[in-house]
């Protein structure tokens, strides 16, 4: 059972007795892999070739110290379902002296060896990825995180930073026996400025708790997502989580004003500014936003929060085809621009799934349509906003862009509409096996991949599309009775190649984690990845921070 | 047959209530206001009766400030045929509201008056009963099922009581107040929101209805319930016993 679960993730075999990874792809995977991003670059012809040449030399002499040509590595990425990870033999194994040391600095209670608690911490939310760590550490402050890392670095003990463990790409759980550093005890709000709206807090604050705290002050967090009840702000920052409010307040690269992070050797980088404008040198905090704990552990965050506006309205709309959804988005931006705060979509397959698997959910509109859209407005004048939204929707109804719809009359109704959109993930879990892809694509292409994949998979699986249409972010989910290699083979690398061909991103907001570490080249050029590898080497020379994730395994195998 | 439904505009069910600093009442400035959920259920039931062919018209009534029109529009968008807004800037207690509803009933002559069993702001649970008493009509409160018999001119109502369900048969005209499990109210759809825009809302004043609004109840002070103290984690059984003995004084 467990092996099955691991295999379906396609990439890791924990108990495997196979020796080194075969870095050389077979011909078949090569030919498949090059159809994506490479195509795009081939058009540049010689330029591309020469870049590869340069990189080769760099690599040979430089940072990675390996003499494997980039071109070769580059080709490895196609064999996603074939490549396996080996535990890096350079990492030490935990011994009793290590545990005693940690107990000395953290106290007995915050060094967890209890099997039940470790079982939970080793397993990701989807129960798809499972590590075998024997130790979880619960530091209470930055100083303790620093001491832990300093020690782990000197001992070459690999670690995995963990927050609420709600990640969707296996980034927050160990792959092998990495020591888990959970920042859950670092959960204090440090400061809040009611004039600027800047909140400074520790990394382990739960998103919903921060929202509740801010609510009493009349402010809201600039991000909101389904996992808010468990996820930590440190984890949100480390994965650069997107969520439902991005269309209005922008990404965390804009709203995080500063942070404090601890690098692998225990250095504390105090970048905890609270200024909106600060052009002094390289803005290094951005390296820690979205790097999934591979460059350092985020310990404190300062984030720009927004005044809570009194008037929130929500409409649940039915559209007959994808083109209407797209046209409606353009119209919504034009007509509701200053109050538009969410534009989410789901297809009828997603709706059916929610209706079948979640209790107490009903379709708000009486007719069944192919697409449903949630439009939320947030403003300061209830009467004005409501009239505006109503007028916009009635006009769209007349134009035929909208075939039916309802407007929430109270917060309870609004919650029940959101429940449908936010409940899809939960419904998918209940429906059986699920392959999740989180893609950024040009809005006009978003639904084509769903249709193409439906055609490709036929009766084998139920393909669903939903997501943040306003941000060009599709959550492509393939639900099947059980995980199987044949199905996975049909999905990957097809989905990645399709995305790459349309210049999309294979990870819009979930991150790469262990699931997509090897697929980075579908969205980033070899030159860019090479720089990423140098930065990794600089901040974490021994590679102990969240190993096997984010960057391709081939770069770090020895 | 005509059905009259009273709908009250209240602080939204999901909003955290804040008491005004001067303790004169609840803060409603910049707070989301919605139709009282029990009134929504009352209206839904009236609409279902109409759709089943037992009634010809559903009239929604709201009493309060000018924004009550929004609440009435919601009712019209759900399907009510027309609205009556009794505009007043002061907030009334149940007896005054019941007197106002009585005089509207005398003008409109409905055969059924539906009200929510209580409003979620003051939780009085009195208006329906008072309206029935003032009109001298039978009443069936806390309804969880309503069945009309057009020929015999009666309503059979299941009531939620402490011991279970009680079934009453009341002659029409009657007053029925609705409980949570009676039905699940519908949403306001776009086509119906559009239609609602052209439905009439009649404005009235307390003076028009010649109702004595003098109340013999005075509200002295509104305060928040005492805050619950946060719990503490004890690290050992000894500490627990120590706390139970010396702080809680229970052992």
- Number of helix segments of chain A? 22
- The SS-based structural class of chain A is alpha+beta
Percentage of residues in DSSP E strands of chain A: 15-25%
Number of domains of chain A: 4
Q: What can be said about the biggest beta sheet of chain A?
A: 7 strands, antiparallel
Task: Count the E strands of chain B.
Answer: 12
Number of domains of chain B: 1
Record field, number of beta strands of chain A: 18
Our measurement of the CA-to-CA distance between the termini of chain B, rounded to an integer number of angstroms, reads: 66 Å
Determine the CATH superfamily of chain B: HUPs
* Derived structural class of chain B: alpha/beta
Question: What is the H/E string of chain B?
Answer: EEEHEHEHEHEEEEEHEHH
Instruction: Specify the biggest β-sheet of chain B.
Output: 9 strands, mixed
> Which of globular, elongated, flat, extended, rod-shaped describes the shape of chain A?
globular
Low-confidence parts of chain B, pLDDT < 50 over ≥5 residues? Answer: none
Pfam families (chain A): FAD-oxidase_C, FAD_binding_4
Domain FAD-binding PCMH-type (chain A): 129-308
Catalytic activity (chain A): (R)-2-hydroxyglutarate + A = 2-oxoglutarate + AH2
Family (chain A): Belongs to the FAD-binding oxidoreductase/transferase type 4 family.
């Amino acid at each position: 059972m467990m092996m099955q679960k691991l295999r379906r993730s396609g990439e890791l075999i924990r108990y495997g007795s196979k020796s080194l990874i075969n870095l050389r792809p077979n011909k078949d995977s090569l030919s498949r892999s090059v159809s994506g991003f490479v195509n795009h670059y081939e058009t540049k012809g010689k330029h591309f070739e020469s870049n590869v040449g340069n990189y080769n030399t760099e690599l040979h002499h430089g940072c990675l110290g390996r003499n494997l040509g980039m071109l070769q590595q580059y080709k490895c990425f196609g064999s996603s379902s074939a490549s396996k990870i080996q535990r890096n033999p350079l990492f030490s194994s935990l011994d009793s002296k290590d545990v005693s040391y940690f107990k000395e600095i953290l106290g007995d209670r915050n060094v967890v060896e209890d099997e039940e608690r470790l079982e939970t911490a080793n397993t990701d939310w989807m129960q798809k990825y499972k590590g075998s760590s024997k130790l979880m550490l619960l530091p209470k402050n930055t100083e303790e995180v620093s001491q832990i890392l300093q020690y782990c670095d000197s001992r070459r003990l690999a670690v995995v930073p963990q927050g609420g463990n709600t990640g969707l790409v296996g980034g927050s759980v160990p792959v092998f026996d990495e020591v888990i550093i959970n920042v859950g005890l670092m959960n204090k709000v440090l400061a809040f400025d009611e004039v600027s709206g800047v909140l400074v807090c520790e990394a382990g604050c739960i998103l919903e708790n921060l929202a509740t705290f801010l609510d009493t002050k009349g402010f809201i967090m600039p991000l909101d997502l389904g996992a808010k009840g468990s996820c930590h702000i440190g984890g949100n920052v480390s994965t650069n989580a997107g969520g439902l409010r991005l269309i209005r307040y922008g990404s965390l690269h804009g709203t995080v004003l500063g942070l404090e992070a601890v690098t692998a050797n225990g250095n504390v980088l105090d970048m905890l500014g609270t200024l909106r404008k600060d052009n002094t040198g390289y803005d290094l905090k951005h390296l820690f936003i979205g790097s999934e704990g591979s460059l350092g552990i985020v310990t404190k965050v300062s984030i720009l929060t927004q005044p809570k506006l009194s008037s929130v309205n929500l409409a649940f709309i039915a559209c007959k085809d994808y083109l209407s959804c797209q046209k409606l988005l353009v119209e919504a931006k034009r007509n509701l621009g200053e109050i538009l705060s969410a534009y989410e979509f789901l297809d009828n397959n997603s709706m059916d799934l929610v209706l079948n698997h979640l209790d107490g959910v009903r379709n708000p509109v009486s007719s069944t349509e192919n697409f449903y859209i949630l439009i939320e407005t947030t403003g300061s004048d209830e009467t004005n906003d409501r009239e505006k939204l109503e007028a916009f929707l009635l006009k769209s109804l007349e134009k035929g862009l909208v075939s039916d719809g309802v407007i929430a009359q109270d917060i309870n109704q609004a919650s029940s509409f959101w429940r449908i959109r936010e409940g899809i993930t939960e419904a998918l879990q209940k429906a059986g096996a699920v392959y999740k892809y989180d893609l950024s694509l040009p809005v006009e292409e978003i639904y084509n991949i769903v249709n193409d994949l439906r055609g490709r998979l036929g009766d084998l699986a139920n393909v669903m599309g939903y997501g943040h249409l306003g941000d060009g972010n599709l959550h492509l989910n393939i639900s099947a009775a059980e995980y199987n290699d044949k199905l996975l083979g049909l999905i990957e690398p097809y989905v990645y190649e399709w995305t790459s061909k349309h210049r999309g991103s294979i990870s819009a907001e979930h991150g790469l984690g262990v699931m997509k570490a090897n697929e980075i080249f579908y969205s980033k050029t070899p030159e860019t990845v090479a720089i990423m590898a140098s930065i990794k080497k600089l901040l974490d020379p021994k590679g102990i921070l969240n190993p096997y994730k984010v960057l391709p395994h081939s770069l770090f195998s020895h | 047959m005509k059905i009259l439904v009273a709908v009250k505009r209240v602080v939204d069910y999901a909003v955290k209530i804040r008491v005004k600093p001067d303790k004169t009442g609840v803060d409603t400035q910049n707070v989301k206001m919605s139709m009282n959920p029990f009134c929504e259920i009352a209206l839904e039931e009236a609409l279902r009766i109409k759709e089943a062919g037992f009634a010809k018209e559903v009239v929604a009534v709201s009493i309060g400030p000018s924004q009550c029109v929004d609440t009435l529009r919601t009712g019209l968008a759900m399907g009510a045929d027309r609205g009556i807004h009794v505009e007043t800037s002061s907030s009334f207690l149940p007896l005054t509201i019941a007197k106002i509803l009585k005089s509207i009933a005398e003008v409109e002559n409905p055969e059924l008056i539906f009200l929510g069993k209580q409003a979620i702001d003051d939780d009085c649970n009195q208006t329906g009963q008072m309206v029935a008493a003032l009109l001298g009509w039978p009443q069936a409160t806390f309804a969880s099922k309503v069945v009309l018999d057009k020929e015999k001119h009666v309503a059979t109502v299941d009531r939620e009581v402490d011991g279970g369900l009680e079934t009453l048969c009341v002659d029409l005209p009657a007053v029925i107040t609705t409980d949570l499990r009676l039905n699940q109210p519908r949403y306001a759809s776009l086509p119906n929101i559009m239609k609602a825009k052209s439905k009439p809302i009649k404005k009235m004043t307390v003076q028009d209805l010649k109702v004595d609004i003098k109340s013999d109840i005075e509200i002295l002070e509104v305060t928040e319930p005492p805050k619950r103290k946060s719990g503490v984690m004890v690290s050992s059984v000894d500490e627990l016993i120590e706390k139970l003995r010396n702080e809680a004084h229970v052992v």
